[in-house]
């Protein structure tokens, strides 16, 4: 039964039938109450496949497959392809946990997965589909990635709802001139408010659940996630918005290829934009935490770290390995133990939003113009990728900022080394546009990290853990003429 269900799941996945997959999940959960042992086994197998798959559908996905309207854009189309993938992390060193069983196995490691579920979740449009602006009918491509902590729930929640929230932002105006400073500023404000609304709604939902759990005497734990969103508006502007320490980088060819060349396997991409991680050491986030009574420690029981924050630095010294704690004496009104978090901002995490709130849930928003004659490569990933990239030529004593720049450069340059091979059709392979075979191979090599074809760009030797990872790659070609 397990083998047959995996074959069905893999087939649906390759054909991007994610709504059908979710429907099967709901149906199996409903019939499981009938008590059949075989039904329960089937439900568990299917749930395991779904909870270790990074890709989910959006709440408004049913409209994204419509045929494009005749007035979808004021210019010629721009070729785009995308792919996504992810794997569970694993315990690596000899001191790691050995109490996992073969039943917990996942694609990252057959014996010791880090979590029961893959906590990194992504949304990408189905092949050759997108949303459309309500008024101008211009195409809007939305991509989302979230790195969950405390479980998969928060990440899946935000990724499913974010596309609809972003589309609502664009629909508030009859037209957008994103080359205009005023229009760009208004868009940024609306995206910030959309993030806040999503976070407030989630925290209100979780608060009700926590109150109910407290009443029932059941055990529960707080959860949250990062949230990165990329929007491509009419093929001419790219918007990045993010909260947390997942990252988006945008690359452009070092030497633009001829306009007639749609794609070139020899193009070398270099970073032209990268989001700034909301790490604990992020100066704005660290100042907010400190101002509201948060405490920095490297581990529970360690003495507090009291940083000096001038507001002029790009990274606060002394907080590179720190975590954020609630102060001594803080009483959680929901009763369960209060965790500590190794980042400077996040979506969810209700206990960190109780006044005085330590986390802002305020995104950085940037708007980039996409030159029509150029191609671009966009990479979104959780910190399970970026924190393990290295360069043998870099100085081990490099600053935190220099390490980030090295990782961004190395990842984009590694694209040149990927060769196109036949698609693999199974439940753990990368998925995306049907003609994006090379992008899929790129995703799989990155997710495999030191076990894949790009092993030399990742740290050597054993680690205590390899974290969950999810990656989205988007290739944007020159606009057709």
Oligomer: single chain
What fraction strand? 15-25%
Helix count from the secondary structure assignment: 9
Order of helices and strands: HHHEEEEEHHEEEEEHEEEEEHHEHEE
* Major sheet summary line: 8 strands, antiparallel
Describe the structure.
This protein is α+β, with helices and mostly antiparallel strands and 481 residues long. The protein has nine helices and 18 strands. The relative contact order is 0.16. Helix 1 (2-14) runs parallel beside helix 3. The model is unreliable at 63-67, 95-110 and 260-264 (pLDDT under 50). A hairpin with a 6-residue loop joins strand 4 and strand 5 (139-149). The chain is globular and about 60 Å long.
In short:
The protein has 481 residues and is of the alpha+beta class.
Write the layout of secondary structure elements.
Layout lengths: L1 H13 L3 H14 L5 H15 L28 E8 L2 E2 L28 E4 L7 E2 L6 E11 L3 H18 L10 H36 L7 E2 L1 E7 L3 E7 L3 E7 L15 E6 L8 H9 L3 E3 L25 E3 L21 E2 L15 E6 L6 E6 L1 H4 L13 H14 L17 E2 L4 H12 L16 E2 L2 E8 L5
Antiparallel strand pairs: 1-16, 1-18, 2-17, 3-5, 4-5, 5-6, 5-7, 6-13, 7-8, 8-14, 9-10, 9-15, 11-12, 15-18
Notable features of this structure?
8-stranded antiparallel beta sheet, 481 residues, globular, alpha+beta
């Amino acid at each position: 039964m397990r083998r047959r269900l995996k074959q069905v799941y893999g087939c649906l996945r390759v054909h991007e039938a994610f709504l059908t997959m979710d429907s099967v999940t709901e149906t199996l959960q409903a019939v499981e109450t009938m008590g059949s042992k075989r039904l329960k086994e089937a439900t568990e197998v299917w749930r395991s496949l779904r909870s270790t798959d990074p890709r989910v559908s959006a709440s408004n996905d049913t409209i994204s497959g419509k045929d494009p309207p005749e007035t979808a854009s004021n210019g010629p189309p721009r070729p785009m392809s995308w792919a996504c993938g992810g794997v569970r992390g694993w315990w690596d060193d000899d001191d790691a946990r050995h109490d996992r069983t073969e039943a917990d196995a996942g694609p990252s490691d057959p014996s010791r997965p880090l979590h029961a579920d893959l906590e990194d979740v992504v949304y990408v449009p189905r092949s050759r589909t997108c949303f459309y602006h309500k008024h101008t009918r211009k195409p809007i491509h939305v991509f989302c990635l979230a790195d969950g902590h405390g479980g998969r729930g928060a990440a899946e929640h935000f990724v499913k709802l974010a596309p609809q929230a972003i589309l609502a932002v664009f629909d508030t105006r009859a037209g957008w001139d994103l080359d205009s400073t005023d229009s760009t500023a208004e868009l940024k404000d609306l995206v910030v408010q959309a993030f806040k609304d999503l976070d407030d709604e989630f925290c209100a939902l979780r608060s009700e659940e926590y109150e109910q759990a407290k009443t029932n005497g059941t055990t529960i734990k707080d959860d949250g996630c990062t949230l990165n969103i990329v929007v491509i508006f009419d093929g001419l502007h790219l918007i990045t918005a993010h909260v947390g320490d997942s990252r988006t980088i945008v690359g452009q060819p070092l030497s633009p290829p001829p306009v007639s060349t749609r794609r070139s396997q020899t193009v070398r991409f270099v970073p032209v934009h990268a989001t700034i991680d909301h790490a604990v050491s992020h100066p704005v986030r660290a100042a907010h935490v400190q101002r509201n009574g948060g405490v920095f420690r490297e581990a529970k029981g360690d003495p507090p770290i009291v940083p000096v924050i001038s507001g002029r630095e790009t990274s606060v010294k002394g907080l590179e390995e720190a975590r954020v704690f609630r102060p001594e004496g803080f009483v959680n009104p929901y009763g369960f133990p209060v965790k500590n978090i190794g980042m400077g901002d996040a979506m969810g995490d209700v206990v960190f939003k109780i006044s005085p709130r330590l986390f802002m849930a305020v995104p950085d928003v940037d708007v980039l113009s996409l030159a029509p004659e150029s191609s671009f490569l966009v990479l979104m990933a959780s910190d399970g990728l970026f924190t393990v990239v290295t360069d043998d030529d870099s100085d081990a004593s490099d600053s935190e900022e220099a390490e980030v720049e090295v990782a961004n450069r190395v990842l984009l340059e590694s694209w040149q080394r990927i060769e196109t091979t036949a698609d693999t059709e199974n439940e753990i392979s990368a998925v995306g546009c049907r003609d994006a075979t090379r992008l899929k191979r790129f995703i799989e090599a990155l997710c495999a990290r030191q076990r894949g074809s790009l092993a030399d760009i990742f740290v050597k030797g054993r680690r205590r853990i390899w974290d969950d990872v999810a990656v989205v790659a988007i290739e944007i070609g020159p606009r057709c003429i």
